[in-house]
Amino acid sequence: MANNTGGHAPRKRFGQNFLQDDGVIQAIARAISADKDDHIVEIGPGQGALTESLVTSGCQLDAIELDRDLTTGLLAAFSIHPRFTLHTGDALKFNYAALRADDTPLRVVGNLPYNISTPLIFKLLENTAIIGDMHFMLQREVVTRLAAQPGSKDWGRLGVMAQFYCDVSHLFDVPPEAFFPPPKVQSAIVRLIPHATPPYPDCDVVRLGKTVQMAFAQRRKTLRNNFKGVLDDEAFASVDIAPTARAETLHLEQFVALSQLPRIL
Predict the structure, then answer these.
(1) How far apart are CA 25 and CA 263, in angstroms?
(2) Where are the extended beta strands (E) located within the chain?
(3) pLDDT tens digit string along 221-234?
């Protein structure tokens, strides 16, 4: 179950660490709980460890794999399933909307390479209108940032933007020895469920993104310093935010309020 593609050597340039612990694979499969009515997109199936659990549910499964050396083994293992399709390409450049043939939301899963995890999550957040949920294996540090709360040293741009779009749950940790080769970091599984009703429907997400980026530009500096020349103390007072506060103390709704001030570009 953990290895369907023979003796492929993990490639550092693709950030490959192949999941090989059957107990962890089964725990992830239970968390996803795939069903025959689901349309699942698996990013980076690798050696097919999780793919096997997904296709046996009878779901429609689109797998996206960048490493062409793995595609032959994946096709040999899974092409017997009529609802399995393998796409060779870069998940960062992939057109996810093109996979939808009906109104069924996409369920996105994957063991994301650490070197592209943050930009890929931002890309997928932009596609939440067509996504039902997401389950990812990530570096635990990234999961901690995604699920962080205001006042935490881990609260930052990634968490603010992820929670603007989704409910975020840190499900469980995965030790290095569950992979080959073992990574030098701890991993974790995260679940992101897009909000059924956007909590801030009038918020311009581009303005919000720029506001959050500016607020966290220098974490140890106050909002007054980070927004110097953009917002004055009067502007902060108009949304009841102290200019002497640091970005990590603000709640999501306060970032939304800042983004709606006239001076924010």
Answers:
(1) 49
(2) 18-19, 39-43, 60-65, 84-88, 106-111, 131-139, 166-174, 179-180, 187-194
(3) 999 999 999 999 99
Query: How many CB atoms sit inside 10 A of residue 260's CB?
Result: 16
Average pLDDT over residues 67-93: 95
Neighbours of 30 (CB within 10 A): 10
pTM summary value: 0.91
Please state which CATH number belongs to domain 12-194: 3.40.50.150
Distance CA(87)–CA(106), nearest Å, equals 15
Would you say 171 and 154 are in contact if contact means Cβ atoms under 8 Å apart?
no
Pairing of the two strands 106-111 and 84-88: unpaired
Kindly report the backbone phi and psi dihedral angles of residue 224, in degrees, each rounded to the nearest multiple of 5, phi listed first: -55, -45
Cα-based angle 197, 146, 118 (whole degrees, multiple of 5) = 105
d(CA 131, CA 111): 17
Class at the top of the CATH hierarchy for domain 205-259: mainly alpha
CB 94 within 8 A of CB 87: yes
Are 160 and 252 spatial neighbours (Cβ–Cβ below 8 Å)?
yes
- Residue spans of the domains in the chain: they are 12-194, 205-259
Q: Can you tell me the distance from the alpha carbon of 163 to that of 200, in angstroms, rounded to the nearest whole number?
A: 11
> Do 34 and 40 meet the contact criterion of CB atoms below 8 Å apart?
yes
What does the alpha-carbon distance between residue 158 and residue 148 come to, in Å, rounded to a whole number?
9
